[in-house]
Amino acid sequence: MGFDDPIVDESVESVWQFQRYDGGFHGPRFWEEDQRSCIGATLWVTRGLLSLGLEKDAIESAIDFVEAEEIEDSPYQFSNSALTLETLHLYGCESENECVKRHMDYLLSLKDGEGKWRCASDPDQRARNRAVVFLILDAIRKLRPEILTNCEFDFLHSRSPQVHLCCTDREARHSTRDAGEKGAGIHHLGRAVSQLGAIRRKKMTWLITPKQTLSAARQAGLDDEHLQLSGVAVLTFSKAVLDRLEELCGHKDAAWLVPQHHPYAAARIVKRGEFDGLGVTVLVPPMGASPLACVVEDLAACGVQAVFLVCAAWSLGPPVRFGDLIVPAFSIGPDGTSIHYGNSKGEVRTALEFVDALVEACRVLDARHHIGGNATCEALYRITPVMADDFRERGCLCVDNGEASTLFAVTHTLGILGGVLFQPYIELTQGWDPALLRDERYRDTCRLQAEVVLEASTQLRRQGSLD
Q1: Domain regions of the chain by residue span
Q2: What is the pLDDT of residues 383-393, one digit of tens each?
Q3: Which of 341, 463, 356 has the alpha carbon at shortest distance from 409?
Q4: Are 360 and 459 in contact (CB under 8 A)?
Q5: What is the pLDDT of residues 428-452, one digit of tens each?
Q6: DSSP letter at 422?
Q7: In angstroms, rounded to a whole number, what is the distance separating the alpha carbons of residues 277 and 358?
Q8: CA dist., res. 147 & res. 115, Å (int)
């Protein structure tokens, strides 16, 4: 996908002054010394062009340069190898690619027999060293998640390095202009172009919007007192979750968007209450990813800052057991909705702070829980053993029909928080057996889910993520 924007055109035009005969890119600072492209600069620019979907011929040449580059014994090689894996992943390469294998083997060679990573640049700079390990693990996870240990997975999805990104259209515009004018800022230009592409995607015009839905509701007699929400929203299909939240938050039936206002995606039940001064709205939405996306957009338009999806999912087997909780940190697989919210690669992650809050809440409440991935398949009767094996190899613990991917993608696009808390009710490899839904342990776990969500909301507010 390209973007018709003069700033994008100007930024991409600035890139060409750094392109070299070998297909890569290089800033002018050391050009006279080595007369060849720089792998770091090439990786950053290529990532930017891939993000924008522009200049396919230039991308092909740059990828050829990247794949031909040798692994060197330098203090920057771990970073270059991690960025190479990230870039090849964006390009669509799989783990069998020879270049992927070489860089994967190099990164794994940095791990000693005790499971420690020998890439710390300075023993006294703990934050920097943690960021280095995060960079390596995140690159490995994209292509070979099955080789990560539980401890590495926990670290990866509960900590985030301090990374500066342009966060507004204005800042991205200035970043691209400054980098182009200063000449030597080729790495910065690549990052800024990539960020600008993400911002351009967010500024498209849509034919039907939440603003129109809310306007129709007002015309039908629903005033702003009923439409305006705050705090968090909990989406669930479980009566036991609903009842426990009502006990803890004093929920009362609330007037909000109903089929009269939104026949496609109105919630069947809407209740409003408070927990320790925090607004908590609980809804029973229509099942399915597409109407859920509308509900989340409407909630955000009404002022909700975070959305939880709390329900059951299809287990992929051990280590997950009946009565456990699952905290998905990412969701993979194709679905028909999240792709419209930027999930073009069939993989989307939730905010690390949300995962951290849910995990901490589970620990506080002594809830047996697992952190991992969720897989999406919208056709329950078409899940095969091969698919299930592939999902497990990619780090997934459960399967749903698209809601998790959609929640992650929609909330990320809207700039609010979103997370999922599942429990298993069938194990796919054992066939269809919904009897567990009638087990009192299932209802006990539903009540625990409700308590975990409220504790996680408290965690998020304590760390400043919620007003």
Answers
A1: 6-202, 210-462
A2: 999 999 999 99
A3: 341
A4: yes
A5: 999 998 888 888 999 999 999 999 9
A6: E
A7: 19
A8: 12
- CA gap 264, 286 in Å, rounded: 9
DSSP state of 184: S
Q: Would you give the end-to-end CA distance of the chain in angstroms?
A: 37
Specify the DSSP class assigned to residue 435. Answer: G
Q: What gap in Å lies between CA 120 and CA 129, rounded to an integer?
A: 5
The amino acid that residue 246 corresponds to is E
C-beta neighbour count of 353 within 10 angstroms: 17
pLDDT of residue 8: 55
Q: How far apart are CA 229 and CA 246, in angstroms?
A: 17
* Cα distances (Å, whole numbers) of residue 270 to 164, 227, 258, 282, 283: 39, 12, 9, 6, 5
299 neighbors 262 (Cβ within 8 angstroms): no
Whole-number Cα distances in Å, 426 to 271, 328, 377, 435:
29, 17, 15, 9
Q: Does the pLDDT value for residue 26 go beyond 70?
A: yes
Is the pTM higher than 0.85? The answer reads: no
CATH fold, domain 210-462, is: Rossmann fold (3.40.50)
